[in-house]
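Students often ask why inverse folding is considered easier than folding. One informal answer: many sequences map to the same fold, so there is more than one right answer. In these notes we will look at a single instance of the problem. The structure comes first.
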């Protein structure tokens, strides 16, 4: 039966459709004739590849809906009386247009939009033009791009077409890409974006980025892919570099800005950025007018648009409450003289350490609302008072669900509930701080001084109502599902009780290294939060009571138990993540009972516990993806049992397990026919797993590596520790077996220049390389290959002959290192400080120990590494000033950890910072050595002595106190 569209007046015309780009060598030369009567049955994918197709079409339908066919078939053209006409056009778009014209629906995508639009324009199909425009308006007006529907390359082609043909596509496409700038930069074709389009997006008022860092990285990425070499670029003065002026350099994270000082394209802007950041972060009194000279405040406004979903301010020590408020005010207010005065007064009156939130005149600051913001990251922002910032967040970000505020010491734990009340939709909170190195199970305490309470002013409510408990909960907060309190020593059992009461919906709790809580306190939260399926409690007093809480039957309600299969009603049975590494308070019997019930666990950390084979054999789960049994008493057979049951295992950590070696030796003795074939564990791993991370030691050999080969082809992290012996031949095979490695850490292995060169030359994705206490030394020849991806480098007792020139070679070829550790480089002197500070200005971690005379003339150039967060200088020369700690804290606003040795103190000791002087410091470690004679013949050779470690003084700060401890260990 014919459709109405095909038989309106019974008159037909033959369209000879010829694809000008079609191949005349098409396999099938049979003439294809189709009709618009069966237009719904056309097989478009197969027809689109035909070079010629004849179509029987209703003449009247064509004339009515297409101005092209109207003029051709009804006008004075000779074709108007023909029964057949020829059309030369792209076959796929022509067929799609004809299907639409004869009543079929149209599936528009960014890929076919332009061909269809051009066809509609040429053939004068106004209805199709309207549909195309409506579709483009719809997809570009949405807040978020949907990748399956839109592709960046197609949008660029549409933009270029609009630019060439003066259509009105340009504004809406620019709007769309500016709003979705992060998506655009993540596309593989980003480097193909025309500069004019990139610049338009960057200048657009709706430019939406997570942080200024993302904008800076994106521009540098584009310029690197689209410019001539940097030195030539600078000499010719390419105008495209002017795009950097659009970056608000005062808002960049300090580590990024400092690191970019080595980037030829960006070095001047980076230097300006670092100076501005330090002015904002280290000035005793924050003043907008002083920073900008009374100029344009827009450079200090954090980018916030109605489309902003993530606000990432991490690593920005310059971010303070006045600056935050400035960014949340209407733009017109930023030039308001009175408002500027109020912002400056706010910063002068209220220091970050003692800000009284209740006395801030919030009514003076009419902040805007940004409904789309869901995630805020203010980690490593020491100038920002979190309690005050939360007041802003609660008003401006009503949809806030995730708050990351790691390393925020000035946030008092007792304010946690107020935080939850202010932001009622919060579900994920990260309040991680630096873990206290004084873990009772790991150190031997010589003496501990009484904790000194910090002098912090209290708010009005606390002054007038001192008896109010830490948490006052008139209602329960059901939204809170994930809470990270890692490292916080200001968390006590009472806090856990209150958290359990007000946050019953918790499914993930991280209490790692919370040393002030007890087994009983943790057990309460395990009892009351029955939905918990992810528990992180490493290096705590997690013990017998906690295990009882997890293994209890939770099906009892009103005294009635639901009868189910044994153990399936316990919290342990439902656990997905259980990390209790370093918890010494769990006996072997208790641990066995717990493991027997962890049937659904995906990630299990049992390092440094009383774990043995009996317990591990009780594991009956099959969903395990990560297993850490390092420094336990397990054997190859027991770990192999777990591996056999865990086909989805991605990570195995088993360093320090001496029984693995014993087990391998026993197998080889009892079954000599195995020769050196790998034992059970490696056989099972190689047979069934596809690993991403593995860490092994005792018993791991070259032959183990061969057996593991099928399992490690996608490996990203490879660690070989004490007791493992790959040999030089095995290490040379690692890049071949594991071509995607990102982290390689080797302890006590046999290495050479050829091994290291092979690693750096072959592993193009390598980001972390650690060579520690290895046999054989390496020279500068090892680092003559460029390794731009390398971020962390640790060389401990493997480069004793490294000179200043060798260090310079290293800096030139591994220029993006942010964490550097050198131990035992005794040929270095004070000049190496210049090499380090100039070669790696963006360092965030620097460890130098037993490195010749690096600090013999003091510490000067290293002070230019202003983004440092972790600094260790020990046994590098007697020349460090007495006030070094205080000076470093004042010049390095992100510095959290300092470790020194009295041996290097020029005046025999160091001044210890008080609460004000410490700035952002949370841990200071000062080691002390005793001097002993090196040999029995030292009398003949003079008073030659060598330092022997005696003790370490550790100062730790949290939100409420300073603790001083002396331990035997060298920490």
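Output (designed amino acids):
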């Amino acid at each position: 039966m014919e459709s109405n569209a095909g038989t309106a007046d019974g008159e037909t015309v033959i369209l000879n459709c010829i694809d000008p780009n079609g191949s005349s060598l098409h396999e099938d030369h049979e003439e294809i004739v189709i009709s618009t009567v069966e237009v719904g049955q056309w097989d478009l994918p197969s027809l689109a590849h035909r070079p010629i197709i004849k179509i029987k079409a209703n003449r009247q339908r064509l004339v009515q809906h297409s101005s092209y066919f109207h003029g051709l078939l009804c006008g004075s053209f000779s074709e108007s009386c023909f029964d057949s006409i020829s059309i030369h056009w792209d076959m796929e778009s022509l067929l799609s247009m004809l299907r639409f014209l004869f009543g079929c629906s149209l599936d528009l995508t960014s890929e076919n939009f332009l061909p269809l639009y051009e066809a509609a324009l040429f053939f004068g199909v106004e209805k199709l033009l309207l549909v195309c425009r409506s579709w483009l308006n719809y997809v570009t007006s949405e807040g978020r791009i949907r990748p399956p529907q839109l592709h960046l390359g197609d949008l660029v082609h549409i933009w270029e077409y609009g630019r060439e043909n003066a259509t009105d596509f340009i504004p809406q496409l620019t709007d769309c890409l500016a709003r979705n700038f992060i998506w655009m930069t993540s596309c593989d074709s980003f480097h193909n974006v025309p500069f004019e389009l990139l610049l338009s997006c960057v200048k657009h008022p709706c430019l939406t980025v997570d942080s200024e860092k993302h904008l800076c990285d994106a521009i540098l990425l584009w310029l690197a892919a689209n410019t001539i070499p940097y030195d030539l670029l600078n000499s010719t003065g390419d105008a495209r570099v002017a795009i950097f002026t659009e970056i608000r350099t005062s808002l960049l994270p300090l580590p990024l800005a400092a690191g970019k000082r080595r980037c030829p394209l960006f070095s001047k802007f980076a230097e300006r950025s670092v100076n501005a950041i330090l002015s904002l972060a280290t000035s005793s009194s924050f003043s907008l007018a002083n920073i900008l000279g009374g100029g344009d405040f827009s450079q200090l406004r954090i980018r916030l648009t109605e489309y902003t979903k993530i606000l990432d301010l991490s690593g920005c020590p310059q971010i303070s409450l006045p600056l935050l408020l400035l960014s949340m005010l209407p733009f017109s207010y930023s030039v308001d003289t009175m408002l500027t005065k109020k912002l400056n007064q706010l910063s002068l009156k209220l220091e970050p350490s003692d800000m009284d939130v209740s006395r801030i005149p919030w009514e003076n600051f009419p902040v805007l609302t940004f409904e789309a913001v869901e995630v805020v990251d203010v980690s490593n922002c020491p100038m920002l008072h979190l309690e005050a910032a939360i007041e802003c967040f609660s008003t401006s970000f009503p949809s806030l669900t995730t708050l990351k505020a790691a390393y925020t010491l000035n946030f008092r734990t007792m304010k946690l509930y107020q935080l939850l009340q202010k932001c009622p939709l919060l579900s994920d909170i990260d309040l991680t701080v630096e873990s206290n190195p004084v873990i009772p199970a790991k150190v031997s305490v010589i003496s501990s001084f009484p904790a000194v309470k910090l002098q912090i002013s209290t708010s009005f409510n606390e002054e007038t109502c001192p008896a109010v408990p830490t948490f006052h909960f008139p209602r329960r907060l059901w939204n809170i599902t994930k809470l990270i309190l890692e490292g916080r020593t200001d968390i006590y059992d009472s806090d856990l009780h209150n958290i359990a009461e007000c946050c019953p919906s918790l499914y993930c709790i991280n209490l790692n290294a919370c040393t002030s809580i007890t087994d009983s306190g943790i057990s309460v939260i395990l009892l009351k939060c029955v939905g918990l399926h992810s528990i992180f409690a490493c290096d705590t007093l997690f013990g017998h009571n906690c295990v009882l809480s997890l293994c209890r039957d939770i099906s009892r309600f009103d005294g009635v138990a639901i009868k189910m299969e044994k153990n399936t009603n316990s919290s342990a049975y439902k656990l997905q993540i259980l990390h209790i590494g370093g918890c010494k308070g769990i006996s072997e019997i208790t641990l066995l009972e717990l493991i027997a019930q962890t049937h659904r666990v995906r990630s299990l950390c049992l390092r440094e516990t009383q774990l043995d084979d009996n317990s591990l054999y009780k594991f009956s789960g099959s969903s395990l993806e990560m297993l850490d049994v390092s420094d336990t008493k397990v054997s190859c057979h027991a770990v192999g049992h777990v591996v056999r049951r865990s086909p989805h295992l991605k990570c195995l950590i088993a360093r320090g397990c001496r029984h693995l070696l014993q087990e391998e030796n026993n197998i080889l003795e009892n079954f000599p026919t195995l020769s050196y074939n790998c034992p059970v564990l490696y056989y099972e791993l190689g047979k069934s797993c596809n690993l991403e991370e593995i860490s092994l030691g005792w018993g791991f050999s070259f032959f183990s590596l061969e057996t593991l080969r099928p399992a490690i082809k996608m490996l990203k992290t490879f660690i070989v520790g004490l007791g493992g012996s790959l040999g030089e031949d095995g290490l040379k095979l690692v890049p071949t077996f594991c071509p995607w490695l990102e982290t390689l850490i080797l302890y006590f292995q046999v290495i050479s220049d050829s091994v290291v060169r092979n690693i750096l030359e072959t592993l193009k994705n390598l980001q972390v390389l650690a060579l520690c206490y290895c046999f054989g030394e390496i020279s500068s020849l090892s680092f003559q290959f460029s390794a731009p991806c390398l971020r962390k480098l640790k060389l401990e007792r493997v480069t004793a002959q490294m000179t200043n020139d060798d260090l310079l070679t290293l800096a030139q070829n591994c220029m993006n290192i942010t964490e550097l550790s050198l131990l035992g480089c005794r040929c270095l002197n004070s000049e190496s400080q210049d090499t380090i500070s100039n070669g790696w200005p963006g360092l965030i971690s620097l460890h130098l120990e037993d490195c010749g005379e690096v600090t013999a003339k003091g510490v000067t150039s290293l002070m230019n590494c202003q983004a440092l967060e972790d600094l260790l200088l020990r046994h590098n020369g007697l020349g460090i000033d007495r006030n070094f700690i205080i000076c470093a804290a004042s010049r390095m606003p992100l510095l959290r950890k300092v470790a020194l040795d009295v041996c290097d103190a020029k005046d025999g000791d160091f001044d210890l910072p008080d609460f004000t002087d410490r700035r952002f410091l949370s841990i200071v470690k000062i080691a002390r050595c005793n001097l002993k004679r090196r040999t029995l013949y030292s009398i003949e050779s003079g008073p030659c002595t060598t330092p022997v470690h005696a003790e370490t003084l550790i100062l730790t700060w949290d939100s409420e106190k300073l603790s001083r401890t002396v331990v035997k260990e060298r920490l």
